[in-house]
Known about the structure:
Layout: H1 11-20, E1 26-27, H2 28-35, H3 39-51, E2 55-62, E3 65-72, H4 74-90
Antiparallel strand pairs: 1-3, 2-3
Amino acid sequence: MKELNPLLHSQLRLAVMSILMNVDEADFVFLKEKTESTAGNLSVQLDKLSTAGYISVEKGFVGKKTRTVCQVTEQGRMAFEEYVEALKEYLNL
Length: 93
């Protein structure tokens, strides 16, 4: 059996990737609300996903407020799909 990707096996990182797989992009506030995580924890997990090349993170401003927008990368999409396939093997699906 394939090993489950430890980077995606984290509950919060998996939730973020699941959300990003279904939208063109999502901002930090949206991800924070959907995952019900703290800003600090979400920020750390986004950094890990970004460092791995699974998501792109673009920081900018809307007026005077900062806005962080995330998108899944092609590498992230492939890693997520491989994770799902490995999970299906474990579940005999």
